[in-house]
């Protein structure tokens, strides 16, 4: 049985408390309640703390001592950090349930459309809706391309958005591609997000339609959360992935929550998520194949999907996942293209 929670939010949690009072106009008591609900694992686990608990083979007490010495944290801040990062080790469950299925999923109601790009124009992506993120630093995944906004990497024509990955030198990299985002232009808290696209299959491609939070208020990835509407790698052609990543459930720990779906990638498909305060449903061509549900007591570490997220579309080359079986340079000499027919966002109902 989970005992009552008592406020002991020193350090980082006090900063979050102050932010909520300032940004949301909450009273101190209301802000404390909000923080305690969002970080329930820290408060509900107070009585479960033990310095002997092993966290990746290292006693929790030793980790606390290291954080105090090397990070300048107080003992309480260090203990909270260790319990947050290794919450499951202290008896905490993830607080989410994933159910795989295959059932008809109704179409969105046209009147609830709140944002879209139908790509019914010619030229670069609409700058009022999209930005191109630029860079060649690997993007946290060891990717090998340089992202550009060049018209040979990203363009709109014939009613389609084209994102092309090519074999060509750009700076320190020998591949180029593009990564589009709505960050700073549009984001959403709940709703239904759909993307209709056709995928490349060259070995070394890593295509994705996904979402990240606009503000990483509670920390960087994976604490901030990630919703992968669709991911596909060329070395495993014909199998798409719908996945969520959180502090407690992510691919770095091998605990990510998701489902793999076989598809005919040479054909057009619609991928999407229906997102509410306690549920994410993943669907493909009118069929729901995965639903992830939040328990009432789930913490931010398990369910960080209660803040605005924005959309990303990108085609990477290589990387920790996309490059696991090498890269077919001949395929990239010809160019690998992800085509997008439309992106639509419907309001929550």
Automatic annotation (TrEMBL):
Similarity section: Belongs to the glycosyl hydrolase 16 family.
Protein name per UniProt: GH16 domain-containing protein
CDD domains tied to this protein: GH16_laminarinase_like
Pfam family of the protein (one): Glyco_hydro_16
Gene3D superfamilies: 2.60.120.200
Domain of life, per lineage: Eukaryota
Domain GH16: residue ranges: 100-349
InterPro entries xref list: Beta-glucanase-like, ConA-like_dom_sf, Glycosyl_Hydrlase_16
